[in-house]
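In this supplementary section we document a worked example of the pipeline. Step one takes a protein sequence of length 330 as its only input; no multiple sequence alignment statistics are reported here. Step two produces a three-dimensional model, which step three serialises into structure tokens for compact storage. The input and output of this example are shown verbatim.
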Amino acid sequence: MNPNSSSPVLCTFRGDFGALAAMIQQSWASNSNQPLLYSEAFLRSAFDYPGSSFSLAPAVYGDAGLLGFLAGFPRAVRWNADAHPARLTLNSFLTAATSVKGPGVAIKLWSDLVERCRDRGYEGTVNFCVEGDGMSRIMPLFSRLLKLKTERIFSVEFLVRLLRPAPSEPPAQIFDRDSDRDIDLFMELASALPGNLPLVRLWTRAEAEWQCRNRAGALTVSAEVGGRRGIITGYLMQAASAPPTTVVLLGDLFWGDLEPAERTELLERFLRAAAGQGARFASCPVLGYASLDPLTAAGFRRSKRVIHTYLTFWNGLQPRPVPALYIDVL
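The serialised model returned by step three reads:
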């Protein structure tokens, strides 16, 4: 892109989250498959994730301000049965202003982010594309143009349920918990996921603290019954609807060694806590790493929403389709 004052400039994001939130809302307004409202507070919180940096957030600016954006967030994973650890970025929020919307801006942002990731020692990227969205069609093209190894490895479906209104209570009164004990439990159960999962997210303690209690809208509920333990995490945010509706997105389903009835009770406690904070709708991605029996028993049903998962490597590893995975869908 020509860097003169009258032409769009590709550079590093300047931290103007208000402009970013407004651009995302306007650009995605016509997308019937995009139900969430990415507020300024939510976007700021995403960059509070440990290791996040504007250096992995290319943006396009013009005389009118912010015109395009993409961010990569660090993720450590274990790939394949050989337990190979890999440093990836989860690429998200690819957006162009309606005045410049099109594949030209997208490919410039994506290729620039790939180079930034390579320069900083990352070994690949994960991209989520909504089925029917333009990015899902042109992601393979991006990969061919940049001569990268990219594969659509998994398609994420969702289970959803309406929530009944519940009395509003301060989070501390919803359940008794010690935050540090919950972090310990989260780390323990995350590390106990089946070793045959092809793609598994790995956690540092600082990342777990962000996930469980520091991110915008964080909600974590744990259970201990007769020495058996489990934990569910998630977060609340607004839906892009009129009037605004609060939704809770379930993140980590760590049933641990809880009995079936105890898993159901843990889920119901989580949903009551979310409803007590205003949530009227719950959504959970189907990733295959955890039993969904408690959710189907609680009335969750499949939605029409599908998000395709694209994995790219440039370190010699070969991406391939997998039957299940454990990573956050952002």
